[in-house]
Amino acid sequence: MLGWVITCHDDKAEELLSLLEKKHGPLAQCRAVNFWRGLSANMLSRMMCDALHATDSGDGVIFLTDQPGAAPYRVASLLSHKHPQCEVISGISVTLLEQMLPTRESMSSQAFRDQIVALGGPEVTSLWHQQQKNPPFVLLHDLYEY
């Protein structure tokens, strides 16, 4: 099963998880990490790292964030590079998460990423999709053999 780490500004992460659990019951391998004003990036990183390890059963973890480029998204992006089968999604809503809930047990992290972005519309994106728009920087001298 894919683990979920919901991480948003203020208390939105806990609010989203609470709404999901009220309707669907307790969610295994799911944690909420709130990013409060004044919280250091280092502390946010430690909290998200703990949540990553608590939700990962070996099938992968999806970081679900509210805003692309904001601190929760950036920290999740850094963590995802160190762990296989991790994806970072931004622009989430409770409706979208409800649609994706049944797929946690059957989809790979990459298939989940592609489906949530397709369902979510233009405001939902992933780290992978953003990287496809902006390919990595390559030095010109690396392109040519001497």
Automatic annotation (TrEMBL):
Major subcellular site: cytoplasm
Residue span(s) of domain PTS EIIA type-4: 1-124
GO cellular component, one term: membrane
UniProt record, GO biological process: phosphoenolpyruvate-dependent sugar phosphotransferase system
Coiled-coil spans in chain: none
Transferase listed as a keyword: yes
Subcellular location(s) of the protein: Cytoplasm
Keyword Transferase listed: yes
Entries under InterPro entries matching the protein: Bacterial_PTS_sugar_comp (IPR051471), PTS_EIIA_man-typ (IPR004701), PTS_EIIA_man-typ_sf (IPR036662), PTS_IIA_man (IPR033887)
Keywords, in A-Z order: Cytoplasm, Kinase, Phosphotransferase system, Sugar transport, Transferase, Transport
GO molecular function: kinase activity
PANTHER family per the UniProt record, alphabetical: PTS PERMEASE-RELATED-RELATED, PTS SYSTEM MANNOSE-SPECIFIC EIIAB COMPONENT-RELATED
Name recorded for this polypeptide: PTS Enzyme IIA
Organism: Citrobacter amalonaticus
